[in-house]
Specification:
The protein has about 350 residues and is of the alpha/beta class. It is built from twelve helices and twelve strands.
Length: about 350
């Protein structure tokens, strides 16, 4: 059976930095062919124009599709599913699909759409990424300009304009597999720590909360979560059961000088090599404990198991670990484990290495 194409849903309010994050992701796509679906409506196509003008070789105009007939939650049958089918029907297969929702769209109805028979066997939700404006949320505003959000919400007569942004925010958090606290450089250290702690407490168990500036995150952190969110809707249901949507023409008001914050300096990765293991289940439990103890974001690689000719592929997103035997070791390939550890800067490499070698 052909493997399903992974799709990542990026959600968050106007001005949180979704388009900036996606642009940075495309700049560092490592050769992946990524198609974009952008949910805008109204007469401005700002997000699409920003991404079309990016000049990135792997981001071609035909790989960017805009849904401009209304909020993606309300146009699943008429707009979203046909668009997905067009992407999936291409001769050259895609490596990943990224969907940027409109600013006030709920992610839950969109994730449920991946269970539609027409696309269920072909694509899966790799994960839901909720981007927040760290400074605004820490001040209880949820968006850089509440007035701008309200003005755009008022453009659509089908929306309930009275729902507090706090309720919409709670639903975006409830559906998230990864929460990105963007514009974190505008927060003091204590303020940032407090916000991250609050978001972790409000989110589902195992959901990671990471900080970013100008959406500068490694691709390996954003993509490849392997969640299969469409099969996990019970845990991520809408808290308030409303149906609110809006436009998000995100030009990101975050224009201060971020020259010293615009790389991947806030993240690090390193490789741990160890001899073959005798008990893969026990080793998985060991890895899970190391991840919890050191707040590791991702861990991936290959493991040699004593007595097994096939190598064991291991991928961990937070505390959740998936593993499977994929292929025989080559004749000249060392029978050992080689694991890549990815986390925010400051990882105790020596302690992590020692724990994985134990």
């Amino acid at each position: 059976m052909t493997a399903k194409i992974p799709a990542t849903v990026v959600t968050g309010f106007l001005g949180a930095g979704k388009t900036t994050l996606i642009r940075h992701m495309l700049d560092n796509a490592q050769g992946k062919r990524i198609a974009l679906i952008i949910n805008e409506f109204g007469d401005l196509g700002v997000d699409g124009d920003i991404l079309r003008g990016c000049g990135i070789e792997t981001c071609k105009d035909e790989d960017i599709m805009e849904l401009s007939n209304g909020c993606i939650c309300c146009t699943v049958a008429e707009d979203f599913v046909p668009t997905m089918l067009k992407l999936l029907d291409r001769d050259q297969p895609l490596d990943h699909i990224v969907i940027e929702t409109s600013g006030l769209a709920l992610p839950q109805p969109l994730v449920r759409a991946f269970s539609w028979p027409e696309i269920r066997t072909k694509v899966t939700v790799d994960g839901v990424v909720t981007v927040i404006d760290g400074k605004a949320v820490s001040e209880g505003r949820f968006a850089h300009s509440v007035a701008a959000v309200d003005a755009q919400r008022a453009q659509d007569d089908t929306l309930d304009h009275d729902t507090p942004l706090s309720e919409l925010f709670e639903d975006q958090i409830a559906c998230a597999d990864l929460i990105v606290v963007n514009k974190s450089d505008l927060l003091g250290a204590e303020e940032a720590d407090a916000l991250v702690a609050t978001l972790k407490a409000d989110a589902r168990p195992g959901v990671q909360v990471i900080r970013s500036t100008m959406g500068a995150l490694p691709v390996d952190v954003l993509l490849g979560q392997g969640i299969g969110a469409e099969d996990d809707m019970t845990a991520r249901h809408e808290i308030h059961h409303h149906h609110h949507h809006d436009d998000d023409h995100e030009d990101d008001d975050h224009t201060h000088d971020a020259a010293h914050h615009h790389g991947h300096d806030d993240f690090e990765s390193f490789v741990v090599t160890r001899p073959e293991v005798t008990d893969p289940a026990a080793f998985s439990a060991q890895v899970a404990e190391v991840i919890r103890a050191h707040d590791i974001l991702r861990l991936k690689g290959f493991v040699a198991v004593a007595g097994k000719p096939l190598r064991l592929t291991m991928q961990a997103v937070g505390p959740r670990i998936d593993s499977y035997f994929d292929r025989p070791f080559a004749a000249d390939e060392p029978r050992q484990a080689r694991l890549v550890v990815i986390g925010q800067a400051g990882l105790d490499r020596a302690a992590i290495t020692a724990a994985l070698l134990a």
